Amino acid sequence: MMQEEDAARPPTRIVPVPLQMVSAYLVMEEGVIVVDTGYPGSEETILEKLREAGAAPEDVTLILLTHCHADHAGSAAALRLKTGGRIAIHRQDAENLRNGLQGRIRPLNLVGRLTGWFFEREAYSRYPACDPDILIQDELDLAPFGVRGRVITTPGHTAGSVSVILESGDALVGDLIIPSVLSGKPGVPFWGESREEIRESVRKVLACGPERVHLAHGGMCQATAVREAFGR
Ligand SMILES: [Zn+2]
Ligand SMILES: [Zn+2]
């Protein structure tokens, strides 16, 4: 009986939604999870992509925010209104979400130092505040939302950054990994709390054994490339 049910389960589809400077993702199985929501005003583009992919707004079971930055949480409130999906964020980033603030960003490299002022401007750092429905502490099982996988904590970019690990062999890591400006290889983000924590979190993701890693800035890369770049 169990096996028959498993055989009938739909395959996992991961649909990137290119938005202004960032990509959100639709993870589609029995349910649809939206991972990140772009800057404010991105909800219609996400809904359009959802329709294109053959799903309806009410199929969205969960709006998962990988962290509280404006390019990820900016359209969460609007998207919840239009889909009824619940919003989940790690409790460490929840306060910023409730205030519609991305918080101070700390540069981790030269690019971060040179561009930080731009992304700290009010227009790029404030967004409509919203109260999350689900606070993530350690892990969140995605089965109740119709997706085979889980959310794990991967701090370092922000204290409450999380990643999605799917049984399909895909990992969605938000801003934990960003391509290097010079080499294009997977690297540490331009801003963050701690380089060491970021590396530790990358190792945690790799230990889950994904084949493909989906970045919020920079698309998909093979896990082998991440392993090479991070020395594991
Ligand atoms: Zn970020
Ligand atoms: Zn970002």
TrEMBL record:
Coiled coil: none annotated. InterPro entries: Metallo-B-lactamas, NDM-1-like, RibonucZ/Hydroxyglut_hydro. Residues 21-217 form the Metallo-beta-lactamase domain. It comes from the Archaea. Transmembrane segments: none annotated. Pfam families: Lactamase_B. This is MBL fold metallo-hydrolase. The lineage of its organism: Archaea, Methanobacteriati, Methanobacteriota, Stenosarchaea group, Methanomicrobia.
